[in-house]
Amino acid sequence: MRRRCRLAGRGRAARGRAEVYRLADEAILAGHGIGRVTEDDAVLVVSELVTHLKGVCVVELALTGGEVAVRVEARGARLPSPARSGQRVCWWEMVTRLAHDITVDRATVAGGVVVLARIGPDAGP
Questions:
Q1: Whose CA is closest to 112, among 83, 82, 64, 71?
Q2: What is the pLDDT of residues 87-97, one digit of tens each?
Q3: Which of 7, 65, 102, 121 has the most Cβ atoms closer than 10 angstroms to its Cβ?
Q4: pTM
């Protein structure tokens, strides 16, 4: 089960959250389960990524075995560097606590970043 969308402009975080909810609804209709915690964590991860990476984001969601795989490509964006700024980046800390197997690719064809994360029953602390 998969969903893909392009998000830009105001309201992109709300549209990203709506895509996660649609994926969960489709899973239920197809007879597959997605746990409430997994759904809630995926909603937060997608919302934070598309809010803070800025610019046009392409979000891809996939549901496999109760786990949600999230891929967010943000052209022209970059992740904040706590080491460079000397400040904590609370939203990124939250993302890394809610998801597992996070991968960041900074070398995209269009410039920017691609963040891959898995959210599932065993994710988080």
A1: 71
A2: 667 888 899 99
A3: 7
A4: 0.86
